[in-house]
Each structure stands twice: as C-alpha cells, then as structure tokens.
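Retro notes (design track)

What went well: tokenization of the new backbones is finally stable.
What didn't: we kept losing track of which sequence belonged to which structure.
Fix going forward: every design gets posted as structure first, then sequence, in one message. First example under the new rule, 96 residues:
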C-alpha cells in the first residue's frame, strides 16, 4: 500500500473504543483488509504525528441482514487497535 489514506479508512467511534482511548490510550480504526501491521503503524505515525507502540488487528465478519424476504449480509472489514506512547493522544471529538 503506497498511500496512507488508503490504509486507514476511518476511526471507530464506539463506546468500547472511547473507553479504550480514555483508559489505555488506544485508538481503534477501520483499515484496509490487505493492510498489515507495519503499514498501519507507519500510516498512523505519519498522519497524526504520534508514536505507536503496538498494533493489534482482527478481521470482522459482516452481519446477516434481511429486507423482507430477501436475505443478505454486510461486507467484511478489518479493525486495528493502535496503542500510543505515553503522552501522545488523538482526539477526534474536539475537532468536530
């Protein structure tokens, strides 16, 4: 992956993600399914000017959904939990 904007799609602003951010200084992102941990670390460090200690990833399967008699499913996606160094932070809600 050559472009950092294709590696990181968007932050996951959920209750669990906000708790991780406040308690453990960890940020969750929705990332490209083909991105590896090294590419995610380099993208976060270059975009937000922070030091990344550790990156954990997991592949999330899409949920089954129904619209009347038609059944389908949402697409699969990849989640990355990024641990930041002490003193570094990213706050998405202050910039809104």
């Amino acid at each position: 992956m050559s472009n950092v904007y294709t590696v990181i799609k968007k932050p996951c602003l959920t209750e669990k993600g906000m708790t991780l951010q406040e308690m453990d200084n960890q940020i969750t992102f929705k990332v490209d399914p083909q991105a590896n941990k090294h590419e995610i670390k380099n993208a976060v460090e270059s975009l937000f000017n922070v030091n990344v200690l550790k990156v954990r990833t997991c592949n999330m399967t899409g949920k089954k959904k129904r619209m009347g008699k038609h059944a389908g499913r949402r697409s699969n996606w990849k989640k990355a939990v990024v641990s930041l160094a002490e003193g570094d932070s990213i706050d998405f809600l202050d910039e809104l």
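Added context from the reviewer: The chain is about 25% helix and 35% strand.
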